[in-house]
Write a structure and sequence with these properties.
70 residues; Alpha-Beta Plaits; two-stranded antiparallel sheet; two-stranded antiparallel ribbon
């Protein structure tokens, strides 16, 4: 997963293009993705819509777990 790919997956849930930030966390030693990231929207409604739609979505052989930050 790359920042660009994650942005492509989550941008459709942003009202008027208001996906503020998406970041895939990278291991500094290996340069590989650590298997998680963060997406920030300008509204709670957009975030809720993304969570409802993308939680469990399959990307390759993996399934996304999407939730609010705890």
């Amino acid at each position: 997963m790359t920042d660009e790919r994650m942005r492509e997956l989550f941008a459709p849930f942003a009202s008027a293009g208001r996906l503020e930030k998406s970041t895939v966390i990278i291991d500094k030693m290996t340069g590989a993705a650590k298997g998680f990231g963060f997406v920030n929207y300008s509204s709670k409604e957009d975030a809720m819509n993304a969570i409802e739609t993308m939680n469990g979505y399959q990307v390759g052989s993996k399934y996304l777990k999407v939730s609010f930050k705890k």
